Write the structure tokens for this entry.
Amino acid sequence: MEVFLPIAQVFVNPVEILLLSAIVGVLSGLFGVGGGFLMTPFLIFLGVPPAYAVANEANNILATSVSGSTTHYLKNTLDYKMGFMIVIGGTIGTALGIYTFTYFKGIGKIDTVISLAYMYILAIIGTLMLVESLREIDRAKRNIVIKKKLHVHYWIHGLPLRMRFPKSKLYESIFTPILIGLLVGFIAAIMGIGGAFILVPAMIYIIKMPTRLVPGTSLFVTIFVSVIVTFLHSFNYGSIDLMLVVMLVIGSIIGVQLGQKLGEKIDSSGLRALLAILLLVVGIAIAYDTFFAEQAQTEISSISNSDLNFFSKFIKEFSNDMPFFYGLFSIMFAISLGVGAAFIRRFFSNFKKKMLMKS
Amino acid sequence: MLLSNVKIINKIKELKVVIIKTGIFMSLAAYWGVILVGTFITFN
């Protein structure tokens, strides 16, 4: 069974997309990583053109980060002040990223740039993760405990314009979060990822935020960055396909919840090496796709408007006639799905607690 | 067990670890080699 995506102009199997986004969601929930850097390559392998894969995955990330951020808001584990500072940098970075995206799209090299960027990012993260997890396994076997320095100061801590962040109990230059946000926004705009793999270590090791505030604040930043990326992609290129977004959001929201539950029950540190190997495998698959299988181009199907079903026709006309409102609608749609998922989760969690209290 | 036997077993274990580590290092080096050479060829 295949479904035609009216904006991306390709046929996809909805079961495959739902299953893959659910699997990536489970991995995200289990390891606390964003799923963007896995899902976008998977979409490319399934035949979605890279420029469309990036834009739609950004919209999907918006929904999942809204869902996660609402949960953290309800638990009061969010530092808004720090989050807004990172968002300022993120906004500038996203604008620069979209400008770069437009440049490469103009010279017809955007697909190669996206593939190469993914290949290198996956190779770097995979290698670092593999080395670190193997080192950890080795240390655990030999019972070696390493003493870490309490405070390490980098040049970034000497920057001017310091500000108090009461929630994180920090006195930090505003340029530190802004510079980190700039990098994250730039990468998010080009690659359609949330950037948590940069944000989370940067918040812990460079900004030195308390670990309990890091996931919520990171998700809070991701909301703003992905809103800007989604809107700019939708308005500039009309590349958001709501049909694809619906499948991605449903799969990943279910997957993330399952992954988080699974993470509470099993120790995932030993599985980190396996995730690293998965990243390296995806990286080499992209390398093969880019270097050796260039001739086998994706078949872009052209279907006339009259052959489309009502929903596809509506999406296509809405996107073409009102790109501004279509972009806004995509954002609102993802936000409402994310908030809805968070409240459903809270309802079930409270219900479970009540049942346990009764019994 | 004889002391010499224990020593031999430990040596074998150490050798196994060395072989695994070398294997991982070689695989990563080959991986990066493919990526870098591929990029170089693509841009030429």
